[in-house]
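[agent] plan:
  1. take the single chain provided in the ticket
  2. run structure prediction with default settings
  3. attach structure tokens to the ticket
  4. add a short note for the reviewer (M.T.)
[agent] executing step 1
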Amino acid sequence: MRALPKLALAVLVPTLTVGCATAPRSIPTSQPQGLAVIVENHAWEDVSVYAASSGEHRRLGTVSSGRTATFQVRHLSASASDLELVASPLASANPHRSGRLMVYAGQTVTWTIHENRLGGDVTIR
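[agent] step 2 finished; step 3 output follows
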């Protein structure tokens, strides 16, 4: 009769110990989403800035003449995206265009707009 409680204890203790063990936690890896767009406007006119990607134009905001503004483009996936930035002057019909850019989520695009409308300078980091 004494062997039964010892046997029950021998089976029960390891079972309870395994039940208390915690599984290793996985570290969440967050994928960067979207990108930052910095627009430096060296043109003489205020501009409305748009991001064009996959046939879709989204207005980012307005940058006054001689000013710099930062915008977040959140609709990009983590994979590469074909993006073009367009700056439409508020008093003219001839927009500034960055040209096609290959960007990835998490990057920062700096676009300097010049008066001559030749695309300006683009840096991607």
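[agent] step 4 note for reviewer: The two ends are 76 Å apart (CA to CA).
[agent] ticket updated
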